[in-house]
Specification:
The complex is a heterodimer of chains A (294) and B (128). Chain A is of the alpha+beta class and 294 residues long. Chain A is built from two helices and 17 strands. Chain A is elongated. Helix content of chain B is 48%, strand content 29%. Chain B is rod-shaped, with a radius of gyration of 27 Å. The chains are: A alpha+beta (294), B alpha+beta (128).
């Protein structure tokens, strides 16, 4: 009788122990599953935020969008701006970038219980590895070439909202040696509204192509009788060699074509507009805002 | 005999209590291990709503009719409430017609630039 009772107690204890172990395992697995699920939601959220910030940056903050980056076939890399827009551009892009960055890092981060940091978030971008910084704000289109030795050619075509007979003066720089970067400039007038071939393209005001020394000041300038001017500088400007600036005053200019060529490099060429770091639930993502790449 | 019976009864009661405690623990473990798998689907829906409305520019245009129309076109099982904020102020609120009883919700938010200001859109989604 005692032996039977002992066996019964032992079986009950074993059964209950198995039940406890199984429920603990189940609980632990459920907790792991829940953690994985929360991490999956956090990953989706991080991806969505990264995508949203890139979208706002590309579509609303920068006013000069890098288009195609590809090999030109002659040992060079060509960056083409398919939609370079107009000059003057909006004046407040820097302020817009500042308030957006402030909102994302403070209010938006707090509401989403997430830590977001935007670095180098300005209305300009850098072509790497050439270290060329492009920007467009107000009446200026700028390009700083901190590694100007790789720069081969800059081509720009502008159409100004003035007729050819309104041109007052045209100034052009002297050429340099063939090893210096080549600068090609075309400026057309507003064109006619007629039906003829090339009517809207405009009459040529200035068409020039020459090698210019990046260490000295070289300037193109077209002034108009009724006021206003277009200027194109290349060389030592704003304390930097190899700087390229297009600027306008009191005229409206459409940038119909803009492309830059560099020496070929056997590595990724990309347009980078800043950096975003996002951290949630131990998931950390730090990535460049890549606008275009070869 | 009485003493023996009492010890046996006490032993039985203790065993029953122990069994009860163990079974309660097992039951509460199973109850506590409930994982909310619906939230991932709802969160995905909230992100989709914000993405679609971003792509067609409805937020930037503050186009109430398009936002309402899009919410109405969602599958019948999905309820959504989209709110646009300017700081703490509500600029507009769009609740899918026929939805009001919130049960289990998931939400997503997006900051966007319009008229040189920063606004925030929030999509809150739940099953009808």
């Amino acid at each position: 009788m005692l032996k039977k009772g002992f066996l019964f107690s032992l079986a009950t204890i074993l059964f209950l122990s198995i039940l406890v172990v199984m429920s603990l395992t189940y609980l632990s697995r459920s907790k792991d599953f829940e953690t994985d699920l929360n991490k999956l939601i956090a990953v989706n959220q991080i991806k969505f935020i990264e995508d949203s910030v890139s979208y706002e940056y590309y579509n609303k903050i920068i006013d000069l969008k890098p288009g195609i980056i590809r090999d030109s076939g002659v040992g060079q890399v060509r960056v083409t701006f398919a939609d370079a827009g107009k000059l003057p551009s909006l004046e407040n892009k820097s302020e817009l970038a500042r308030i957006y960055k402030e909102n994302i890092e403070d209010e938006f981060s707090m509401l989403n219980n997430i830590n977001i940091t935007l670095k180098n978030f300005y209305p300009n971008f850098t072509i790497l590895p050439y270290n060329s910084v492009f920007g467009k704000e107000g009446g200026n289109l700028t390009m700083y070439n901190f590694n100007y030795s790789a720069l081969k050619k800059i081509e720009i075509e502008l159409q100004v909202d003035r007729p050819l007979d309104n041109v007052d003066t045209i100034t052009m720089p002297a050429g340099s040696v063939d090893s210096d970067p080549e600068i090609k400039v075309k400026i057309r007038d507003k064109g006619s509204s007629g039906q003829g071939k090339g009517a809207n393209k405009g009459e040529m005001i200035l068409d020039d192509e020459k090698h210019l020394n990046p260490l000295i000041k070289n300037s193109y300038k077209v002034t108009f009788e009724t006021g206003g001017f277009i200027g194109i500088d290349f060389g030592n400007f704003n304390k930097n060699n190899g700087t390229y600036i297009v600027y306008v005053d009191d005229v409206n200019v459409n940038i119909t074509s803009y492309q830059v060529r560099y020496d070929y490099v056997d590595q990724e060429v990309k347009a980078v507009g800043g950096n975003i770091s996002i951290n949630k639930l131990g998931i950390y993502k730090n990535t460049e805002l890549i606008l275009a790449s070869r | 005999m009485n003493k023996k019976g009492m010890i046996m009864s006490l032993d039985g009661i203790i065993a029953l209590v122990l069994c009860g405690v163990v079974l309660m623990f097992v039951y509460s473990s199973i109850q506590g291990s409930f994982v909310d798998t619906k939230s991932i689907g709802l969160h995905g829906n909230a992100i989709d709503i914000l993405s679609v409305l971003r792509e067609d520019g409805s937020f930037e245009r503050f186009d109430d009719a398009v936002i309402d129309g899009y919410l109405s076109s969602l599958p019948g099982q999905i309820c959504a409430n989209v709110t646009i904020y300017d700081g703490n102020q509500i600029v507009s609120n769009h609740l899918r017609p026929g939805c009001n009883g919130k049960t289990q919700t998931a939400s997503a938010r997006r900051s966007f630039l319009a008229e040189d200001k920063v606004y925030m859109a929030e999509a809150e989604v739940y099953y009808a």
